[in-house]
Write a structure and sequence with these properties.
- By secondary structure, this protein is mostly helical.
- The protein is built from 18 helices and no strands.
- Belongs to the major facilitator superfamily.
Length: 391
């Protein structure tokens, strides 16, 4: 196997491992809150802690890459995640548990932004889509591992976190022994002038002044708000305001996430056959049409079609926008830009669904679905503005 193939394999492994802890809280939380005797809503504190850590490290990834290089960044960040998961195993109080969530967020943000920055420069758009599909594999495998542990070991939630910690530690060892490969230009599958180290020649403040970077920060903020918001609220909207059965609503929300994962695999083939910007424009229009169908909801099938169309259409948007970053803003800005974009994405995922919920609670659930359509229209318009600014 050529070294480029080795790096691709390791990158896929990294994205899978990155997805493993993401959904574990949703499975373990009933047992965690019972042991620490905290309200059920305090899961939000755990998620917020991880989000803060993620924001700090992903926002600073351009600086971190310039200081340590992608190889060492992946090693140390994976150890952070492993350490945080082991910390869950040994946590004696809920406060300690939340502190370790911050540690995991710091590691996850650096891995996510670091891998995306490297992949955007060295791998094709096809592999960017497949790498993000690999994240979905990890996000699916994580709950399976944790559930299996709960069933097989008398609901021992700590052991599930420990097993995930071991997997992340092994990943860190893999990154350690392959760290020199990440810094070697001659092995890059997709080579352009200059190396990753050469791209980081401007400060964060200089990068933030770039008009395209500012537009893309807003784009990623909106996109993640749509993707996560639809996944979080569609079930509630369908069951509580449209009279759709629990089984049907749950099935179609699962189809939404499945279409998102499968779509990334499918578009991995298509991005090499069609211009990326044309595909992105069509997909953004598809998200708008899906949101319109879901919002109008003339029949239950309109809701179902809207969800499936939004999931499939949204699939290539995130990875393709990441892969196009260096082309749009220039190599010297790309590492900073990708870090900003990842930070904006997690911020949007935390805030826009919450805002939609407030609107739905005040004006009714029908207006909650209208927010999805509004965000989707803003995304399409902003994409056109980005293309105009690039030209």
């Amino acid at each position: 196997m050529r070294t480029s193939g080795v790096l691709l394999f390791i990158a896929y492994l990294g994205f899978i491992s990155l997805g493993l802890p993401d959904a574990a809280h949703g499975i373990n939380w009933p047992f965690v809150r019972s042991e620490f005797a905290v309200p059920i809503g305090w899961l939000g504190l755990v998620i917020a802690g991880g989000g803060v850590g993620y924001l700090v490290s992903s926002f600073s990834v351009g600086y971190l890459l310039s200081r340590f290089g992608v190889g060492w960044l992946l090693v140390v960040s994976s150890l952070f995640v492993s350490f945080g998961l082991f910390g869950f195993y040994f946590s004696s109080t809920f406060t300690v548990f939340v502190l370790f969530a911050i540690v995991i967020g710091i590691g996850s943000g650096a891995i996510d932004a670091g891998l995306n920055a490297y992949a955007a420069e060295h791998f094709s758009a096809k592999h960017m889509n497949w790498l993000h599909a690999a994240f979905g594999v990890g996000a699916t495998a994580g709950p399976i591992i944790v559930t299996t542990v709960l069933v097989s070991f008398s609901q021992n939630w700590r052991l599930g976190y420990a097993i995930l910690a071991v997997i992340l530690f092994v990943t860190a060892i893999v990154f350690l022994f392959s760290r020199h490969l990440w810094e070697s230009d001659k092995h890059a599958p997709k080579k352009s002038e200059g190396s990753l180290d050469e791209t980081v020649t401007v400060s964060q403040l200089q990068a933030l002044k770039h008009p395209v970077i500012r537009s893309q920060i807003v784009f990623f903020f909106l996109y993640s708000g749509v993707e996560v918001g639809v996944g979080q609220w569609a079930f509630t909207v369908m069951t509580e305001s449209r009279g759709i059965s629990l089984a049907s609503a749950g099935t179609w929300v699962a189809i939404y996430w499945g279409a998102l994962a499968i779509g990334r695999a499918v578009f991995g083939f298509l991005v090499e056959r069609f211009p990326v910007d044309q595909l992105l424009r069509l997909c953004l229009a598809g998200v708008v049409l899906g949101a319109l169908s879901f919002t109008a909801s003339v029949t239950p099938y309109a809701s179902y079609l809207g969800l499936a169309l939004m999931g499939f259409s949204a699939a290539p948007i995130f990875p393709c926008m990441i892969s196009q970053t260096a082309i749009r803003v220039g190599k010297k800005y790309s590492a900073h830009a990708i870090g900003f974009q990842m930070s904006a994405a997690v911020t949007g995922a935390m805030t826009l669904p919450f805002l939609s919920g407030l609107i739905g609670g005040h004006y009714g659930l029908a207006w909650l679905s209208v927010t999805f359509l509004f965000y989707a229209l803003l995304l399409l318009g902003l994409f056109q503005l980005i293309l105009k600014r690039v030209k």
